[in-house]
Design a protein that fits this description.
By secondary structure, the protein is mainly alpha-helical.
Length: 47
């Protein structure tokens, strides 16, 4: 998976789960933390 594709998916997931308030903290996260958030939100989306 290329960097742009998972980051694009991360933005979509952040919009979908905006009630969690994670989007407000993105600027302070590094790439590894963003990767972890992406996997967390993917698990939430898969149910």
């Amino acid at each position: 998976m290329t960097t742009n594709s998972w980051i694009d998916q991360l933005h979509f997931l952040l919009e979908r789960f905006s009630y969690l308030g994670i989007g407000e903290d993105l600027a302070s996260m590094d790439l590894i933390e963003l990767w972890g958030v992406y996997h967390y939100l993917r698990r939430l989306a898969e149910g």
